[in-house]
Design goal:
The chain is an alpha/beta fold. The protein has helices at residues 3-10, 22-35, 58-66, 71-80, 96-105, 116-128, 177-181, 197-202, 205-208, 231-240, 274-283, and strands at residues 41-44, 50-53, 86-90, 108-112, 135-138, 141-142, 147-151, 170-175, 188-191, 215-220, 244-249, 254-257, 266-271, 288-289, 292-293. Helix content is 34%, strand content 22%. Strand 3 (86-90), helix 5 and strand 4 form a beta-alpha-beta unit. It starts with a helix and ends with a strand.
């Protein structure tokens, strides 16, 4: 465990009542997983939802150590979505966001995860939550056109499309969001594809124009440079489609404007129909995580 991750754990909002409350949990988790290497642990996540956690896979392990890994964005999902809504998870990894939507809220989901090992974990999480009927899970990537591309493997949440100038990787099918969704319109989309965001957005122009799409959680952290993309390009696509960048404060149920800028070190929350979104999050049922009701 690096110092950066230890700092992340102790400063996490769900540890706010005691900055040191995460340390005993970290030590207990480290001891248990050393005694039982390669074990899988099923943890309570939110409301009735559960998550299968494999030690050493940060995409799931962080939730065991702090409750909700990406607290602000996950909290936004839980306050925005309703059971009748459709959520689209692009780059689902082990499926934490999908589990929150389908298992925690009861919403329908379309989830894309092209890496075989991560897709298997996603399937296990759907089974644990008896959520298969609510989730269309596809072992495929997403891009500007249908076809194939090459992906790295064995890098957990950091798996990414292999640039043209590099060799290796696993060949996977890709689809466009517009083709995949057809006439359906998600209320919320999460896109976490390690720099491939511009290509995903290029195949989603019709979906982005739909008024029923209220928000997009988009990761912009400079990793698109490996493909010749800039974060500013993706940001322009979103703002030109009528979205404005915000961050969310789950405890206060408050959307905070980023003044037209985007978050350069993680996710940016892009919102359309701000008044409608504010009404939704204000009127949402609270969710329970750890010893918090939020």
């Amino acid at each position: 465990m690096t110092l950066a991750r230890l700092r992340y754990l102790t400063e996490h909002p769900l540890n706010r009542r005691s900055r040191l409350r995460g340390v005993p949990r970290l030590l207990a988790w480290a001891a248990a997983t050393r005694l039982l290497p390669r074990c899988e642990v099923v943890i309570p996540l939110v409301n009735q939802a559960r998550l299968v956690v494999t030690p050493g896979r940060w995409g799931s392990e962080a939730n065991a150590l702090c409750g909700l890994h990406e607290f602000a964005d996950m909290g936004f999902l839980l306050h925005l979505l309703r059971p009748a809504d459709l959520f689209c998870d692009v780059g689902a990894n082990v499926g934490t966001y999908t589990v929150l939507a389908a298992g925690g809220i009861g919403a329908r989901c379309l989830a894309f995860e092209p890496v075989a090992s991560s897709f298997a974990d996603l399937q296990r999480n759907l089974a644990v939550n008896h959520a298969q009927a609510r989730v269309d899970a596809r072992q495929a990537g997403v891009g500007r056109r249908s076809g194939t591309l090459r992906l790295t493997t064995g890098q957990d949440t950091m798996n990414h499309v292999v640039p043209d100038q590099e060799t290796g990787g696993q060949t996977v099918p890709i689809q466009t969001l517009d083709e995949s969704l057809g006439a359906e319109v998600p209320v919320l989309i999460k896109i976490d594809v390690e720099g491939w965001e511009q290509e995903v957005l290029a195949g989603a122009s019709r979906t982005l124009a739909c008024p029923g799409l209220l928000a997009v959680i988009l990761e912009l952290n400079g990793s698109g440079q490996r493909y010749g993309f800039s974060d500013e390009q993706a940001h322009s696509v979103m703002t030109n489609a009528g979205f404005t960048p915000h961050r969310y404060r789950p405890f206060q149920r408050e959307l905070v404007s980023l003044g037209g800028a985007f978050n350069r070190e993680g996710n940016t929350l892009y919102v359309r129909s701000l008044a409608q979104v504010r009404e939704r999050v204000a009127s949402a049922a609270p969710f329970a995580v750890r010893d918090f009701v939020i």
